[in-house]
Inverse folding.
């Protein structure tokens, strides 16, 4: 019985590994890779009937075999080129320009989320992340907040903006007359940027990491189709628009457009934690008032006068 359980666990682990490999191959193909170098003996093993089974570790490893894998021995024969197989899953963004509603949107969102959870495109982040932080909130919301990347708290919780900066963002959202549950919150990067050699702190995502991960955010935007977006900080702006000529101090408060959706740049909440000037809080609040106006939502006199 114990051996059966071990077999089932190993099979599940194999399935996860296989799916991650398939996703990775699709990513390579999407990035323009046409050929891969593959060991011919491994290829032969994969094309044999029942090959998946043969690659699953056996419950009782044979003597002399360290992990009991039935993988073929490393070939001494030369490697050959094969064409990358056709993708099995549909492309990341598959709406074809049509808005998906209700359950169809939820199903498409769940599929993309699943792919993010299994994503191994940035191996150095995969090896250090605790959780993939996909996003949270209402996938039918007219308002989407875009942040930078998960920090240590978010990495642990698997949810964006849960630390001190997250609490502040929650208060800003509430001051707008909304809640975290009625907006959607996502980051440019879904995995925490590793900070090699230190157990705390954050670092800015690299352009390559942003490039790798952006399709997930693009898919989220494509599915949600918000009527307005808020880019929290300079890195979120760079993720959406590439390298910009100005810093967030100059960019904030002026609308931009991303895939036809108005984007309001403003300061990242962590900047507000470092800079407690009322005038800076007022700047962020004026940006949020513009967002409410763009959404056509009522603004009370009290709201208009916050931080005055
Ligand atoms: S950061 Fe994004 S692209 Fe990189 S491994 Fe995580 S989910 Fe994949």
């Amino acid at each position: 019985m114990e051996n059966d359980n071990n077999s089932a666990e190993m099979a599940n682990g194999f399935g996860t590994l296989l799916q991650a490999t398939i996703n990775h191959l699709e990513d390579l193909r999407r990035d323009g890779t046409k050929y891969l170098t593959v060991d011919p003996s491994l290829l032969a093993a994969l094309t044999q009937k029942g090959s998946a089974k043969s690659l699953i570790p056996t419950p009782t490893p044979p003597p002399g075999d360290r992990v009991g894998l039935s993988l073929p021995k490393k070939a001494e024969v030369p490697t050959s080129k094969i064409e990358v197989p056709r993708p099995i899953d549909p492309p990341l963004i598959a709406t074809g320009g049509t808005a998906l509603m209700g359950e169809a949107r939820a199903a498409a969102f769940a599929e993309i989320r699943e792919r993010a959870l299994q994503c191994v495109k940035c191996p150095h982040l995969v090896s250090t992340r605790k959780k993939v932080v996909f996003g949270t909130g209402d996938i039918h919301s007219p308002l989407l907040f875009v942040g930078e990347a998960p920090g240590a708290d978010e990495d642990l919780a698997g949810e964006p903006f849960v630390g001190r900066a997250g609490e502040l963002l929650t208060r800003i959202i509430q001051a707008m007359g909304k809640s975290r549950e009625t907006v959607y919150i996502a980051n440019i990067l879904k995995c925490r940027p590793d900070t090699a050699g230190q157990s705390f702190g954050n670092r800015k995502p690299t352009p390559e990491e942003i490039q790798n991960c952006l399709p997930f955010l693009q898919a989220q935007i494509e599915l949600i189709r918000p009527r307005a977006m808020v880019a929290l900080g300079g890195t979120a702006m760079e993720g959406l628009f590439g390298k910009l000529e100005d810093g967030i101090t100059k960019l904030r408060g002026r609308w931009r457009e991303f895939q036809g959706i108005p984007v309001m740049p403003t300061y990242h909440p962590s900047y507000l934690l470092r800079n407690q000037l009322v005038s800076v809080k007022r700047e962020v609040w004026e940006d949020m008032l513009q967002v409410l106006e763009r959404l056509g939502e009522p603004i009370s006199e009290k709201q208009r006068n916050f931080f005055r």
User: Anything to note?
Assistant: The longest helix spans residues 2-30. Residues 116, 119, 121-122, 125-126, 132, 189-191, 209, 212-213 surround iron/sulfur cluster (CB under 6 Å). The longest strand covers residues 261-266.
